[in-house]
Amino acid sequence: MAGSFGFERDKYEISQAIGELELLPAVRQAPADWLIIADGFSCREQIVQNTRRRPLHLAEVLKIAQDTSLSGSRL
């Protein structure tokens, strides 16, 4: 989607088609217990809008790992 590209009315269809080339099928096929990590806002938004998954930013994953490490439990 790249920035505001996919939010523009005349570019929505091409944005969806690009997402369906690799990203969205891979997210849909990922096991439910896998984390979906996407740093870019546009990628995360496209994943949320087109799949049943909630992607995490790398910073969120690092925070989860830190909290888990401090509590002594495992992911």
Could you walk me through the main structural features you see in this protein, from its secondary elements to its overall organization?
The chain is an all-alpha fold. Helices cover 55% and strands 0% of the residues. It starts with 11 loop residues before the first helix and ends with a helix. The mean pLDDT is 90.
Spell out the key features of this protein:
75 residues, mainly alpha, 55% helix, 0% strand
Describe the secondary structure blueprint for this structure.
Elements: H1 12-21, H2 23-29, H3 41-50, H4 58-71
Question: What is the strand tally?
Answer: 0
Global shape: elongated
> What is the terminal separation in angstroms?
31 Å
Main beta sheet: none
Rounded average pLDDT: 90
Helix content estimate: 40-55%
Determine Rg (CA atoms, Å). Answer: 15 Å
Instruction: Give the SSE order as H and E letters.
Output: HHHH
Give the amount of beta strand, in percent. Answer: under 5%
Question: Which runs of at least 5 residues are low in confidence (pLDDT < 50)?
Answer: none
Oligomeric category = single chain
SS-based structural class? mainly alpha
Continuous helix count: 4
